[in-house]
Amino acid sequence: MAAGKGGKPRKTLTAMLAGVAGSVASGAELRGTVTLPPHAPVWKKLLIVMGPGLLVAVGYIDPGNWATDIAAGAKYGYDLLFVVLLASLAAIFLQCLSMRVGVVTGKDLAQLSRARYGRKSNFFQWVMAELSIVACDIAEVLGGALAFHLLFGCSMATGILITGLDTFIILGLRGRGFRQVEAVILGLVMTVSICYVVELWLVGPDWAAAGIGLAPVLSRLKETDALYLAIGIVGATVMPHNLYLHSSVVQTRQFNASRETRAEMIRLNTADTVISLLLAFFVNAAILVLAAAAFHTSGHTDVADIEQAYRLLEPVMGTALAGFVFALALLAAGQSSTFTGTIAGQVVLEGYMGVKLPFWQRRLITRALALLPALIGVLVWGDGAIGNMMVLSQVVLGLQLPFAMYPLIRFVSDRGLMHGFAIRRVGQSAAWALFAVIVGCNIWLMFKMV
């Protein structure tokens, strides 16, 4: 043991990890693992491994992403599409780092932090992680409530209360196993994807202009509003709680501890992550492209929130189907994020605090913490405040991100911890550069808000 302050022995990280209680990614009531056959073909192994990336991907298409993508597409057309692409690539990079830590160490990011850092530091990190989860859930509550409002004509306050009933859906999944949860998530994600395929077919975007918009041109950000929207897109895309989630859910796949198998699991999970987050990129890009084609080209450049976009879709596109499909996709996006937010909440609570709760209880607590501010906001400021509240929730997520990134980069760069699977200097440089960019964006955003 190394000596700490005052001459007292200080445990190494490896020794401290031995005393940290393990937790299954899905929590007490969604236990279950998938064994990787040693001699199966690669395609079959990939099908077995795939799933964790999908759970992470839904966080990148939740209702919080919609407001920034719609506003960017309506005001600037296809010009900010490259921001969606770069934010998605950054998300893929960070999620691959998170996955690597989980596969190699057999611990999630919260458990590792609990082992390395002191009690006060861990409590602070836990609070930051919980804030990000609640902020994300507020966006899901508002998005779900708005979907109910658009589909069934109920008031926003009633829609918010209806979103609290998803706890009963969680109760219905008790004991079903992790694969069943992944299947539900897949169904919801595919619903969102198919809805946007239909939307793009109806609107007929200028694909050549969209292709040009994918090329990074920083001069497009010279306007303050464009830069503000770009930061909003980044904040809405890279979710801090997903870093905790991914490092945990990859452990639902069993494999032997040999170096060769770990290397193979990293490759397979990397493919899973890339495929899943590219699907999320398609959805986010489709939202911006839809707004650009439907609103920007028709002169409606001031569309800034989801409800306004819904109201304009039918007259602009000439069919009621466009609005219905849009609202249906919004509902599916909010519900899919509900599941993963609950799992992430269990991961951080068990990892940092050693407290284990049944899956439905964790869902109830998270949703209650989100329902109250959402309901108060609507009752006090009216339905017109929904867009601002959703954007604010994404700002909170962006502010929390560095607190999850810092320990992640430290752990994945630690050669003693990662047993030869630590990222190389090039990867470390890229990770710290990304960290600096996000911190810089946060500082700029806070300066503009003040």
The CATH topology, please?
Amino acid/polyamine transporter I
What's the level 1 CATH class? Mainly Alpha
Q: What is the helix tally?
A: 20
Helix and strand content put the structural class at: mainly alpha
Oligomer: single chain
Low-confidence stretches: 1-32
Helix content: over 70%
Element-by-element helix/strand order: EEHEHHHHHHHHHHHHEHHHHHHH
CATH homologous superfamily grouping: Amino acid/polyamine transporter I
Question: What's the structural domain tally?
Answer: 1
Rg calculated over all Cα atoms: 22 Å
Reading side by side through the largest sheet, how are the strands ordered? 1-2
Distance between the termini: 47 Å
Main β sheet profile? 2 strands, antiparallel
Report the sheet-strand fraction: under 5%
- Identify the overall geometry: globular
The chain-level mean pLDDT equals 79
Assigned CATH architecture: Up-down Bundle
User: Would you count the extended β strands for me?
Assistant: 4
